[in-house]
Amino acid sequence: MSDGAAVRRPTDATVPWLVGGLGALSFAFFFGWSLWFASELDPTAIALGFVTVAVPALGLVWGGYRLERSTIGVDRHRRIAQWCFGCGVGFLAVNALIMIFFPWHTTSGNISWAQFSLNVGAVAGLTVGYVEARAIQREVEATAATVRAERLAEEREVLTYLNDLLRHEVLNSAQIINGHASLLLEDADDRSRTHLETIDRKSDALTDVIDDVRAMLNASRESDATERVDLGDLLDAEVTALDDRIDELEIDADVPDAVFVSGNEGLRWVFANVLENAVEHNDSEHPRIAVTVETQAETVTVRIADNGPGISAETRETLFDRKSRNHGLGLYLVYILVHRYGGSVELTETGPQGSVFSITLARADATDDDGEPTRDPKTDTAHGTETTGSAESEPISRTGSQSDDGDAGLP
Questions:
Q1: Please, what is the Cα angle at 257 between 255 and 262, to 5 degrees?
Q2: Locations of Polar residues compositional bias (predicted)?
Q3: Is the CATH code 2.40.320.10 the one for domain 225-362?
Q4: Which label site among 7, 185, 205, 238 has the fewest CB atoms less than 10 Å from its CB?
Q5: Nearest 5°: phi and psi at 331?
Q6: Could you tell me which of 258, 297, 263, 298 has the C-alpha nearest to residue 396?
């Protein structure tokens, strides 16, 4: 299959059952023939009949089963049946003509000859029809894959154009509007201030939406969404940016060095959005966030915990759905991007004392430009081996003074 996996198609079992039924009937007929002519058959004749008649009959039974389990579409079953029964009847007719002029010296021999002709012809026809159907199917799938590739290339060009349009035209215009509104606010009177604040607020919201759309476009247009990303550096940068921007926030980040995952630049937006979401909806007197990383042999899980008020049951049902109000993408875009990278995101814990989001990504081998595993200068060990927690790395600590309240939601 073009997508690298065998996809089972819905099938009508009529033709497979007919083929298998013919084989089963022929096999039963062989035993009837053996019993009916037992008095004139010696062990050699029975053994020869089993090889030439019963074995091809079992081949038809297996062929019918194999056809029913195959990925060949129902629309090609009729062609296979024509090959199977046509060759069986045709080979029988040829041998019947020979038997008319050169008959076997016993009736049992002529009957066995006829049954052999039908079975072997049917098996040969089934084989030819099956091979032909598979060849046609491969050609159709190859053509469809080519068409899909061309369509994806065209769509990628459109996404690139839209991204450039958003960046050069729409985003620049929104920023210019926002800048002029901010300048006018400095000297505005009370009457104009309300309108200018609305312009300033809406232009900020428009810029946020444009950034969200561009993040999705950038991730979608990447030809390789599974390049290697240093998760430690990425989380360090995002935690530092959030800590510098919000003074009253306490952050505790425990991130191993040089942990590589599969993804692209869109991962930066994913973690920035989840971290921002943890702060934005946190009404605690002392807002706190804890970021921990757990590595397994094939995956890396990042847990972001807060001490906020939790998420209501009603909101949890549509937490990762696309929101129609305020044009927000938010966690919906996080969900789309993470799944594009072959990972998952979920709300693992929530309650009055905080929430925990878990983002699981595929682990990538850490190699340098020469294809050799990168090494930790502190331990001189290759990061291609498994690490867990922070036992083999130095945590990033950005914790302010710890309070004793409101930490039940933190790990």
A1: 85
A2: 384-403
A3: no
A4: 7
A5: -65, -20
A6: 258
In order of 39, 167, 172, 383, the CA distances from 372 in angstroms are: 77, 38, 43, 10
The domains of the chain are located at 1-221, 225-362
Q: Rounded to an integer, what distance in angstroms lies between the CA atom of residue 96 and that of residue 90? A: 10
Helices (H) and strands (E) in the chain, counts: 11, 7
Strand (E) or helix (H) holding 283: none
- Tokens, residue 5: 């996996």
Neighbours of 285 (CB within 10 A): 9
Helix, strand, coil content of the chain in percent (nearest 5): 60, 10, 30
Q: Residue 213: CA atoms inside 13 Å, Cβ hemisphere, count? A: 17
Q: What is the pLDDT of residues 137-191, one digit of tens each?
A: 888 888 888 888 887 777 667 667 676 767 677 777 777 887 888 888 877 777 7
Task: Please check whether residue 92 is in contact with residue 118, taking contact to mean a CB–CB distance below 8 angstroms.
Answer: yes
pLDDT value, residue 235: 92
Which pair of structure tokens corresponds to residue 241?
């940016």
Beta-carbon contacts of residue 221 (< 8 Å; ≥ 6 apart): 156, 159, 160, 163
